[in-house]
Structure formats: C-alpha cells, structure tokens
Amino acid sequence: MADGLPTEFDVVIIGTGLPESILAAACSRSGQRVLHIDSRSYYGGNWASFTFSGLLSWLKEYQQNSDIGDKSTATWQDLIHETEEAITLHRKDETIQHTEVFCYVRQDMDDNIEEIDDLQKNPSLVTSGTLSKLLDSACLSEEMHSLYGTSHGISAKEIPKNDGEILLEVTGIEESQVKEKYYGDKTCIHTFADGDKDENKPIVEDNTDLPKRNRITYSQLVKEGRKFNIDLVSKLLYSQGLLIDLLIKSNVSRYAEFKNVTRILTFREGKVEQVPCSRADVFNNKELTMVEKRMLMKFLTFCLDYEQHPDEYQDFTQCSFSEYLKTKKLTPNLQHFVLHSIAMTESSCTTIDGLKATKNFLQCLGRFGNTPFLFPLYGQGEIPQCFCRMCAVFGGIYCLRHKVQCLVVDKESGRCKAIIDHFGQRINAKYFIVEDSYLSEETCSNVQYKQISRAVLITDQSVLKTDSDQHISILIVPPAEPGMCAVRVTELCSSTMTCMKDTHLVHLTCSSSKTAREDLESVVKKLFTPYAETEIDREELTKPRLLWALYFNMRDSSGISRSSYSGLPSNVYVCSGPDCALGNEHAVKQAETLFQEIFPGEEFCPPPPNPEDIVFDGDDKQPEAPGTNNIIMAKLESSE
Amino acid sequence: MHGRLKVKTSEEQAEAKRLEREQKLKLYQSATQTVFQKRQAGELDESVLELTSQILGANPDFATLWNCRREVIQRLEAQKSPEELAALVKAELGFLESCLRVNPKSYGTWHHRCWLLGRLPEPNWTRELELCARFLEVDERNFHCWDYRRFVAAQAAVPPSEELAFTDSLITRNFSNYSSWHYRSCLLPQLHPQPDSGPQGRLPEDVLLKELELVQNAFFTDPNDQSAWFYHRWLLGRADPQDALRCLHVSRDEACLTVAFSRPLLVGPRTETLLLMVDESPLAVEWRTPHGRNRPSHVWICDLPTTSLNDQLPQHTFRVIWTTGDTQKECVLLKGHQEGWCRDSATDEQLFRCELSVEKSTVLQSELESCKELQELEPENKWCLLTIILLMRALDPLLYEKETLQYFQTLKAVDPMRAAYLDDLRSKFLLENSVLKMEYAEVRVLQLAHKDLTVLCHLEQLLLVTHLDLSNNRLQALPPALAALRCLEVLQVNDNAIESLDGVTNLPRLQELVLCNNRLQQPGALRPLASCPKLVLLNLQGNPLCQIVGTLEHLAELLPSVSSILT
C-alpha cells in the first residue's frame, strides 16, 4: 500500500473525525495536497457509525486494546537524523471507557448467527461507511469517474460488497454467558437468561396476547445487523446551524440525505409528552387550553426578537431563566416546555442565555420542517465521510489502517517537517493536523478531560406511540435532583436507516459525573422495561421494551486549549474529539478557526464552481494534477 | 497555487449567459413564428404539437399556444384510431405535468388539463387526485391546484367527507390557508344539508361548535392570521337574506307609487320583473329610480293615472309582485287620505344584522366571551376587535352600542391605515341603531345630529321619514340614494363638510333645507335643488359660496321657486 503513496504533501491530517474531515475538505478545496490518514479501519474516529456487528467488533477492539503490542515499532529511531527529533504518537486509543453491554433478548445458540448480507474480508467495511472502499484507495482519479457516473444524487449505498463470507465472531457474547465482569477499560457484558424458563415450550408464532409486539431474538438483531447504523456520538443538525450552512455552502450536502426530526418530547410527571413548539404544533395540540396556546405563542414570538424588547427582560438579567419564566404568565407545563425542551437549558442558566437558546431553537424552525433539527440518514457517521469525499474529489489522498509512529521535528526551526508511518516511511509536509487521541501521554500530561456518558439502546417501540411508528424524536429528561445533568435522548426509527424494522434505536447522552451506566441507568428505567417474552405487567405494557443496551464513556476534549499540550511544534494543529452538545457547532468552528490560522485569507470551503464555468486550458498540460477529477465530474454531471 | 481550478470571471460568465439567452430567444421566436404560420395555413398537425411543446415547455403561460394545441387535438381526434388517440392523450397528460413542474401556477396549463380530462371517455380521476395531492404537498396554498382539485372531485363524485378530511390534513400542516378554509365552507353545507324550511347554508349546531373550536385554535395560536378570522366570520354569518319587498308607499298628491326592495335591482322598461295590480287588475306603468339614473337601485317609482287614485271608491289597493324574487306586497290608500303605505318593521326582520346570524345567540355569546378573553391577551389585535364588534351587533346592537363605540375607538388607534373604513362602518352601525330606535318610537322623524357620521347608508329604509337632522357630522356629500326619501319635508345638514348635493333631487315634499357651515363652493352646486318643487327655504350661511359676489342673484335665477334664500 505504501508503495504508491507520494511522500510530499502540503498538509497531513491524522484522524478522520468531523473537524479533521472538514479541514481536509477545506485544504484540498483550496488547492493543497492533502494526505488524510487514520490508524483505525473505519472513517470518523469517535464520530463513526457502526452496523450491529461493526459495533460488536469495535467493542471487542476496546477489550483487546491493551494487547496491541509494539510489534511494528520497526526501526523508526534509525530514521531520525541528527538535526531532528521525534515526537511519538499514541498507539492506543483511550477515549472510550466503562463499556458495558446488556442483552435482554433470547440468545439462541442453535441459530447460525450471521449477518444476512455478505460480510467482507475488508474490515473497514464493517463501518456503515459505504465510501470506505472507494476512498480507501490512494489512487483516485479512475475510480472517481465511476463514482460520479453512478451516484448522481443518491448516496452510493448500493455499492456491491465483497462476496467473501465470514461468520461473525460472537465469541465475546458467548463468553459472556459465564457472566464475566471486567472493570475499568474492559468491556463487561451482562446477559439475562430470560429464555431459560420457556425454552422447551414451543413458541407460538401468532401470539394473540400480544398481537402488536413482535418477538425479536438476538439472532435476528445479528442477522439484520447491517440495517443498523449506530452512532458513537448522538448529535443532530440545527437547521440554521453552522454545519448545515457549511454543507450547503460547500455543496457537500449533495453527498448526504437528511430527515427532519419529527417530534420534540419531554418527560414530565412521569409521562412522555410531545412539546408543541411550532405554530402548527400549537394549533394541533389537544392538551393546551386556548389561553395557554396564546401565552406560549406570545412568549415564543417575543423570544424571536427579544433584543428588540429589552424592557421585557431587563429587570430579570440577574435571575435564572426559570425564575424569569415564572413572571411571564406561563403555566407550569409551559414553563417546563420552554426551559427543558425548547431552550434546553439547565434551570440555573441566566435569563439572557435562556432567551438566546430559545431564539436559536425558534430560528431553526420551519427551514426544513416543523422542528429545528435534521438527522443524517445512515447516521451521523456519514457527515465526516461526506467531507472526506469532497477532499478526495479535489485530489486528497486517503489511507485507513495507517499508523503514524512519530512526528519529525527539525531541531533548528522547531517546526515539524514529516511523519514516519508504520512502514517506516517518511512523509513530508508543511502542516500537520492531529486529532487529540493520537497525542501521547507525554504531550498531554497537563490536560484534564471531561467525559461524556453514552448509552445505546435497541428497543421494540417508541417512547410515545402514535399512529405512525416512523418518528424521529428528541427527548430531554430533566435532572431528577438539582445539580445533576439533564439527559438527552434521541430516538431513531427504522426509516432513518439506522435500525432494523420494528425496532427503535435510542441514544442517551449526558456529561458524566460517574460511569455511563451510573449516570444513565435511572433514566433508562424510567422510560423502558427489560424485554420479556412471557408475562407482562399491564402497567409495564405501555413502556417500550429494551432488547439490547450498551453503556460507555467517551472522552470530551472539546474544551482543551492548544496551550495545554506540551512540546508541540507550531505547525502541528490539534483537533478535539466530539463534545457533549447537541449540535456540531464546536467541530465546525474549530475547523474553520484552524483553517484560517493555517491559511489566512483563504476562503473556507467555497462552493465548487459550476461545471460550465470551468476553463479548459487548451490541451491539458497537467492531466494528473489534483482537481482534474472535478472536471470529469463536471462533464458527467452536465451530460446527465 | 497549483491544482487550483481555473474558473471564468464574472464578466466572462455574464457574456456566456448573454449569448446563451440570445440563442434561446432566437429559437423561441422562430418556433413561435412557425406555429403562427402553420395555424394560419390551417396545417394543424402533429408538428404543431411538437413546436408548441418546445415553447410551452419553457413558458407555459403562452395562452394562445394552448389554444393551438386544442385545435390540433380536436382535428386529430377525427383522424386517429382510438389506440393512437390514447397514446396522444397519454403524451399530452405527461407533457402537462412537466409544464406544471415548470410553473405550478400557470392558468393556461391547469385549464388545458381540465379541458383534456373533460374530453376523455374514461378519465382516470384517481390519478388526477393524486396529482393534486402531490402539488399541494409542495405548496399547500396553490389555489390553481385547489381549483383543479374541486373540478376533479366534482367530476369523480368524491364524497365530501373525503375531501373534508383532505382539508383537515392541510390545515393541520399550516392553517394559514384560505383555499382550504374556503373548501370547508363549501363542503360542510353539502355534508349537513338543512331541512327545506331552515335557513340555507347554515350548519347544525354540533358541527358548528366543532368548527368554531378548530378556528379558535387557529386564532389563539396566531391572532394575526386573517384566513382563520374570515372563516370564523363565515361560520357565524348567515346566507344572503331572502328577496323581499320592504316597503310600499302610495301618494295621492304626487300620484305615484314607491317600492323599496331588499337588494338593488334593475327594472327594465318592458321587463316583467315587476307587476302592479291596482284594485286587482294589472296596470302597465313605467318604472324609474328616484334619482333618475338607470342603475340598479333599492327604490323604484312609478306614476299612477288619476283613475287609480280617484276618491269614488272607499279605498284602492295596490299590489306589487316581484316575479323573480317570488314575493309581493300590498298597500291600501283609503278615501280621504293623502298617502298609504305598508312596510316591514326593521325590528322584526333584523334588517341590519346581515353580518352575523342571531339564530344561535348562545353560540354567539360564548364566541364573544372567547374573543374578549383573547382581546385581553392581545389588546391590539384588530381582527379580534372587529370580531367583537360584529358579535355585539349580532347579539344586541342597542344594548352594546356604547361598548361598540369604545371598541371602534381602540380599533382605529391600532389600525390607523383603515381609519376611514372604520369610520364608515361605525357610521353605518350608528345609522342602523338610530333607525331601530325610530322604529321602536314609531315616528317619522330621524335624529342623526352629532354622531360623527362620515357616510350615509340604508337610505332606502327611510322612505317614510319626513324630518331628517344630519347636523354636526362629517359628511362630505348627500349621495344620490337620498332621493329615495320621498316624504322628506325638512332636511337639516348644518356643520358638515358638504361639497355636493347630488342626492337632494326630485324630493317632492322638501320644503326646508338648512346647509349652514358647509363647504359649498359654487352656486352651481345647488342646481339639483331645482328639481324639488316645494322647496321654499334654503339656508346657506357659512358656506364659501356666500363670499362670491352675485351669488344671491345667481341663486335666484337658478332656483326661482325658492322664496327665501339665506346667505
């Protein structure tokens, strides 16, 4: 693989998370020669999405992470000249901790568990990323033809997979039958031998007691595993947010499809209910009285341009937003809606911050639908890949499973001049962008990280059933006691292409105070009940049932300032991993700031030119030059 | 920097665009010309379809070309086999759809589709309904498509309940949708027909209450959205009043009969619209309007021959039959009496309450309460204020008079753009109230001084008034309709802003006219008064024309019969 790889670049980017990918696209678009590499076998780093089996492999990797020895350290020390010194990079990812898996459905070991689709030899395809294979190639020009020839307008979901069949390794799960528990960095897996009791009973297919509730077994989850696209970070796009603007401006949006979030839900007095937030919602709401409707609309309308009416809030700038809401003639349920589900703030937030958040929410309404949020089909993991694709279109080169051993620093200038990869190959560049999980302990010795608590649940029903089971909902569960964090729940339906039919994929997120399970389990218990095939309590019947659950903590490095890292040359730039916020504003801001720092005065991700505006210089003198792909693309598109 | 794309400059782009446009224009013009030539030469064949489709594909609003296509299709219908024709229609439908995608609001395209579907032996209406649903999905307020949908629904006999459910779904999505509300107002009476005796176009109470709740949801959510308020007004309104003869007046002195109708109408010279029976035998008469203009009018007059008025019989009966209105009225002139009349009492018939119905006063009362509740939350909402005024009028115009005037005050302050309209509306309501009070008092004297009136209306209701005081208002003219006041003897219009007197014409009994402190500029403005035979006293003090030298002489010449003119 390394044979064909050029050794001179303008920018080397290590890590394929969202900020790195945006930067890669921006640099490539402005004419830089970009090498974008990732030591992992999939795109996106902690921003990735996985199929069910992909997620299991990912879990296993974290289990085995410590085993990865220094086999390939090769002999890079010899490659460092006397005038140079090396900054080693991390070989082990430590951003994920406390993974715990719970399986509630029956695990029939007789079943020949394998994914229905052909599995690939190429492990990179375990990710949901469909472009992986294409982009994986270092040589792009020829392949890009066919890519653009076939995928006009539709994302290339149908790219044929390898024919090779591999049985999914389920050993990790089988072992778990022994109820092994690992703590710390180890994954611990719990199973519930729910099927024990009635294993001998024949299962009646047409269960009249529970006509609506399909039986789902573990083997089904695995078989249909490719229907899942499970995000490691759970985020949504604000319709008027920075990411949407960037996607549109740069034309990267053409590589992705989105669905509008359909419902904003809240949890109040032990019940899940829908929050009316748009004009149509308020109009259609059956719970609110006429006067409540008016008061809510009036308050929301005011928030849209609250700056114009300082007299309305001036006296309350010192109070909390929740105190302020009490003065606005809003009934307690309306206050709850505004505070937790619209402003999505903590009770302690100030009046101005609350108004600002409310305004932001409202401004996003109506651009694409009745809620302010979009969700990318096939998962959040698509977004970094879209930017990578843009980068590749303009000549960027991609290498996955490509480890970097060290950065090479010129002693005299103090600048980084090259990297040395795991083949011992030296690759030169002017600028280096590194995702922070690659930085060694030494570099990060002064850094204090926050943590994000995450849970991923597969459930059998929506938390709020309506006539349609195809809703995308966001639900904020306010903290049970003051001082704790609100938990953000996103529930995805199968039409988002993130889970199999008759299931929902639920993501829980909060900033950590303890381990993910400790932080989130209470909310999970409030909303769901464990899957059981037999008896069902009438009361419990109304709650959706848990089929499978995963808890983990993810490192949040978003607040770390560049100066906290020690010993990094000035031309090495650091991107952080995902933050805890709902939107992607931090990643976009970071990418744009770094880009402006590296290339002051260059436009950040300008729209690609219209095909007809591209000037062809006689007989092309530089047929291999990066960027010519775009001309081919342009030709193909205009001929369609 | 290497690898950077070379892109045309904006001037180059503009130039390229200009050339492209020029090219397009040339093609467009030559194709248009060819079509017109072929049409003139009668060559209505498929080539015309092809050419017009090129032009219409780019500009579907070219109505003449749609006409061309219709001519071609009609011609081809005669020549082609059924199979060929079916293929032609299919292609035409597809082409229409592509035109609609270019411009979903093109009159010509929708019309052509109607025309085409109307000619098909077996039109596929289901497909058409789906097409409408698709276009309304994109733009739920595309009224062209709504029109077409109503056409399709009528042709396909879609049950009104299904169509109502469709409007439900669109209102749920966005209730600012006149078309959708309007469609409801058409469908609901179809779904809930009233028994024959009941007033037409009204809804049963349970349906009405449900609709009121829906529309209240809308205006509590967004009180500034007009569409919901208009629907609200429809819900509470009533169907057009039935045609009626309101008043019949016969005068021996003037030897004429005057009739007032419930709506303005035109009575032609030899039409059978009106039949007059005098003592049960028909009498041919010439009808005219009081002001002498041959226009639709509430009031019509005819001269009677002396034989019909002689004193030999103890009484004469006069019966007027309004044939088209299917109604009649009779009045009696007794021996020794100068006049006779018969009229509907304004109080019985709720003459002035046309805006809103009173049949469900409990409903109106509760609507008034919700509107007042909303008004407390939204003190400056004009729609709410106006609706409150209308509801109050429907409930009891006299009881709420004072309150109504206060709401008018507020309404004018929040909606200064419509101050003049509101003044006129207020004048109308005040006039109605005064007429009601006069009716209750059973007098023929109408006191309208100091009411801040800006306009005079309902004058046809004042046929019998003998004394009218309009002093101290803001009137600028005495309109032609005033000529309907056939019994008027004294008219006081002091302290207004009168500039013209068009209406003070042909008033047979007018004796005294007081016009002090107005804005009459020229003696010529008084010319209409010459047609009032009994006018003896005219007071013009305080008008600009008094300043003109020789005014008095001029007036004496103009109005020789007026014995006393004060300037």
From TrEMBL, chain A:
InterPro entries: FAD/NAD-bd_sf, GDP_dissociation_inhibitor, Rab_escort, RAE1_2_domI_C
SUPFAM superfamilies reported for this sequence: FAD-linked reductases, C-terminal domain, FAD/NAD(P)-binding domain
Pfam families: GDI, RAE1_2_domI_C
GO cellular component terms, semicolon-separated: cytosol; nucleus; Rab-protein geranylgeranyltransferase complex
Cellular localization per UniProt: Cytoplasm, Cytosol
Gene Ontology biological process terms from the UniProt entry: intracellular protein transport; small GTPase-mediated signal transduction; vesicle-mediated transport
All residue ranges annotated as the RAE1/2 domain in the record: 452-580
Family affiliation: Belongs to the Rab GDI family.
Role according to the record: Substrate-binding subunit (component A) of the Rab geranylgeranyltransferase (GGTase) complex. Binds unprenylated Rab proteins and presents the substrate peptide to the catalytic component B. The component A is thought to be regenerated by transferring its prenylated Rab back to the donor membrane.
Protein name per the record: Rab proteins geranylgeranyltransferase component A
Organism: Hipposideros armiger
Taxonomic placement: Eukaryota, Metazoa, Chordata, Craniata, Vertebrata
Gene it is expressed from: CHML
From TrEMBL, chain B:
One cellular component (GO) term of this entry: Rab-protein geranylgeranyltransferase complex
Catalytic activity field: geranylgeranyl diphosphate + L-cysteinyl-[protein] = S-geranylgeranyl-L-cysteinyl-[protein] + diphosphate
EC number: 2.5.1.60
Residue ranges the record marks as coiled coil: none
Family, per entry: Belongs to the protein prenyltransferase subunit alpha family.
Stated role: Catalyzes the transfer of a geranyl-geranyl moiety from geranyl-geranyl pyrophosphate to cysteines occuring in specific C-terminal amino acid sequences. Catalyzes the transfer of a geranylgeranyl moiety from geranylgeranyl diphosphate to both cysteines of Rab proteins with the C-terminal sequence -XXCC, -XCXC and -CCXX, such as RAB1A, RAB3A, RAB5A and RAB7A.
Record-linked InterPro entries: Leu-rich_rpt, LRR_dom_sf, Prenyl_trans_a, RabGGT_asu_insert-dom_sf, RabGGT_asu_insert-domain
Originating organism: Hipposideros armiger (Great Himalayan leaf-nosed bat)
UniProt name for this protein: Geranylgeranyl transferase type-2 subunit alpha
GO biological process, one term: prenylation
GO MF entries: Rab geranylgeranyltransferase activity; zinc ion binding
Pfam families: LRR_9, PPTA, RabGGT_insert
Keyword annotations from UniProtKB, A to Z: Leucine-rich repeat, Phosphoprotein, Prenyltransferase, Repeat, Transferase
Domain Rab geranylgeranyltransferase alpha subunit insert-domain: 245-346
Domain of life: Eukaryota
Gene3D superfamilies: Protein prenylyltransferase (1.25.40.120), Rab geranylgeranyltransferase alpha-subunit, insert domain (2.60.40.1130), Ribonuclease Inhibitor (3.80.10.10)
